[in-house]
Design brief:
It is a single chain. With 666 residues, the chain is of the alpha+beta class. The protein has 18 helices and 29 strands. The chain has three domains: 185 residues, no CATH class; 102 residues, Phosphorylase Kinase, domain 1 (2-Layer Sandwich), CATH 3.30.200.20; 227 residues, Orthogonal Bundle (Transferase(Phosphotransferase), domain 1). The protein is 33% helix and 19% strand.
Length: 666
């Protein structure tokens, strides 16, 4: 009995000592990823998440797509668009970086002329609002006199009668771009920056070499709070399987470290030693506290039992549903905020409407321009569509997908979704709608739209998501004609372990996979079919459905299949794009028509995947940059002949409207 009384203080003393010394001893078991991902310096730049330095850090220290190099520890270099770009400044606060083509500085300092087009396809970056394009025309037989140009005297050519020049193509000048490129051997476009929104005339007064060397700004999409929250908790930001992770001393966590930042090693050792010396003095106090805590716990248990018996469960407190900070990790807006942003949903601010709701232009108090979708009250499935779109968009980050800024609570008086505002309308508007005009959207721009749209769909499919409503009305354009794919109300998460999802017909007439009507099974090839219709619109400038056309050609997909199979492409394409005057345009339009033919096959197995479609489109763009001799036209313009003829029957006979069709089951 005496031995037992002695053993309790000794045991308690030992336990207290172990607990206090644990942080010090635990240093040897520190998470290796925490140490590996400490911020680095490259020259004068601080390198931290989402960036990581190749050959110095593991890829998990940043996002996989944000790899940079740091040769000789002098200046960070970003490899993008098949070239090296010097990172002159990084703003983690604004999610932006200033870059300059390394070749313009090092390889050709006295003749800063680019040799390849710059593209952001396949990268996580976007251009800033002040970006414009500088075009270089090489070895031209004619230099325009009605347009301001920069002569390029250093461009080498064996024919002295040919000239090269550079110019900035501003709004309204795309017809000039199309006609001028026909008189030149090659054309290259690169981005430049207008400082602080300076006007175009100011930029024109500079030397083209200075415009190139000054570089341009790239931005990236990222949650500003996720890394900040991790850092405040004492962690270091990183990623696993392309998803954000917070690396902490004791392990990895999805958002932040479980404990507050620990003090430095020396202080821990001091605390440990002091605790060891004073542990015996704490024994009595600890025993007293443990006893008192036991008594309190007993009393509270008895009290809570008594209360639970006397109070009805219906009177339990419930939180205010509109005060949640996020839903599916998406910020929550109050109805009042969005009502003010849209001037009480003023009809003059309507941007358009579709099968599920009306979209309004709005301006938030922080100055952001937004598009606010107001779901229809009479749509019985609006809650499901609302949750579906928020859930899917919260998982996605891609430069060619529209960003979801937030939404209202599910319990709000109305269901509202808040997106980034994309200012230049839809592809449909520019092809055959209110913004369509001959020469405005040139063939190179259309091909770029196809590539960026395909890139977005490849990303969706890689994320196990099927869009289900791919159409030109759901492809938005910014002022520089870069793509933002939108409208995910019909989209579906696609389980990894199945080959299809059974569902009732949904989508837009003219774009819906005909195989859908046979088995009501959804696959990623359904998006491929719809994208094939988009390709047909891009080459023809015709809408997907037009009841004014011949009954066998009401559906553009049917018309396109028959024209292509019948070697009558000239009856399908928009001739104003230069099909009959520009060899390069004719060649690439023909190749895109062939690709569309494959996408529109009734047999889903005969269609390519979206990844294959994207790869082919990129190859076509490269082909377009090559000079095509007139004699090569006949060989290059041969259309596909090894596919069966298609039925003239239009699938649109089953549909009564041309808007997305909500259904009663999904």
């Amino acid at each position: 009995m005496y031995c037992n009384k002695i053993s309790y203080p000794i045991l308690l003393n030992f336990i207290i000592l172990i607990f206090i010394l644990e942080p010090v001893l635990g240093q040897n078991n520190q998470n290796p990823k925490f140490k590996a991902c400490e911020p680095k310096k490259c020259g004068a730049s601080n390198i931290s998440y989402p960036f990581w330095i190749d050959d110095e850090q593991e890829s998990y220290c940043g996002h996989p797509n944000f790899k940079i190099s740091c040769p000789d520890h002098k200046i960070p270099i970003l490899h993008i668009s098949d070239g090296d770009y010097l990172i002159r400044d990084i703003s983690y606060e604004n999610h932006s970086l200033l870059v300059t083509n390394a070749a313009a500085i090092y390889d050709e300092p006295n003749c800063s002329i680019p040799h390849r087009n710059f593209t952001l396809v396949g990268s996580p970056f976007s251009f800033s609002d002040y970006h414009i394009d500088l075009y270089f025309f090489y070895n031209c037989s004619l230099v325009p006199t009605q347009y301001f140009v920069f002569p390029i005297l250093c461009a080498k050519t064996s024919n002295k009668s040919l000239s090269s020049y550079a110019t900035i193509i501003h709004e309204g000048g795309f017809q000039f771009l199309n006609s001028s490129s026909e008189k030149c051997e090659s054309l290259v476009g690169v981005p430049i920056e207008m400082d602080g929104g300076e006007n175009l005339n100011t930029s024109m007064k500079k030397q083209y070499s200075d415009l190139v060397k000054n570089g341009f700004v790239l931005t990236w999409n990222s949650s500003a709070s996720e890394c900040t929250e991790c850092q405040i908790s004492g962690g270091r930001c990183g990623s696993e399987n392309a998803k954000f992770v917070c690396f902490c001393l004791e392990g990895s966590h999805p958002k932040s470290c479980k404990h507050a930042p620990k003090s430095n090693r020396a202080m821990k050792i001091g605390i440990g030693v002091s605790a060891a010396v004073g542990a015996s003095l704490l024994t009595i106090l600890a025993a007293f506290l443990l006893f008192r805590r036991w008594r309190q716990k007993n009393d509270l248990h008895n009290l809570s039992t008594l209360i639970s018996r006397s109070i009805s469960p219906d009177l339990s407190m419930k939180p205010d549903p509109e005060k949640g900070s996020s839903y599916f990790n998406t910020p929550i807006f109050t109805y009042k905020e969005l009502e003010e942003a849209t001037n009480n949903f003023d009809s003059s601010k309507e941007l358009g409407d579709g099968g599920f709701g009306t979209v309004y232009y709005g301006k938030l108090k922080d100055g952001r321009a937004v598009a606010v979708k107001r779901l229809y009250e009479n749509n019985c499935k609006r809650v499901e569509q609302f949750m579906n779109e928020v859930n899917i968009l919260s998982l996605l980050r891609h430069q060619n997908l529209v960003s979801l800024y937030g939404c209202t609570s599910r319990h709000s008086r109305e269901l509202l979704l808040v997106y980034e505002y994309v200012s230049n309308g839809t592809v449909a508007d520019h092809l055959h709608g209110e913004h369509s005009s001959a020469g405005m959207v040139t063939w190179p721009i259309r091909l770029s739209i196809a590539i960026e749209s395909a890139d977005a769909l490849v990303y969706l499919h890689a994320s196990d998501i099927i869009h289900r409503d791919v159409k030109t009305n759901n492809i938005l354009l910014d002022k520089n004609f870069h793509v933002k794919v939108a409208d995910f109300g019909l989209s579906r998460l696609f389980p990894n372990d199945v080959t299809h999802v059974s569902t009732a017909p949904q989508g837009t007439p003219g774009y819906v996979d005909p195989d859908y009507y046979q088995c009501y099974q959804l696959t990623d090839k359904s998006d491929v079919y719809s994208f094939g219709v988009v390709l047909c619109e891009l080459i023809s400038s015709k809408p997907a459905v037009d009841i004014n056309r011949h009954r066998h050609e009401i559906n553009l997909s049917t018309m396109a299949l028959n024209k292509i199979h019948g070697d009558a492409l000239h009856e399908l394409v928009d001739m104003s794009l230069g099909f009959d005057t520009n060899a390069s345009v004719r060649k690439t339009m023909t190749l895109v028509a062939e690709l569309a033919y494959r996408c529109l096959q009734q047999d889903t197995d005969a269609r390519p995947s979206m990844a294959e479609v994207l790869e082919i489109l990129k190859e076509i763009e490269v082909e377009g940059s090559k000079v095509v001799k007139p004699g090569e036209l006949t060989d290059d313009a041969k259309l596909l002949k090894n596919y069966p003829p298609v039925s003239p029957n239009s699938v649109t006979d089953k549909w009564a409207s041309i808007t997305s069709t909500p259904n009663t089951s999904s």
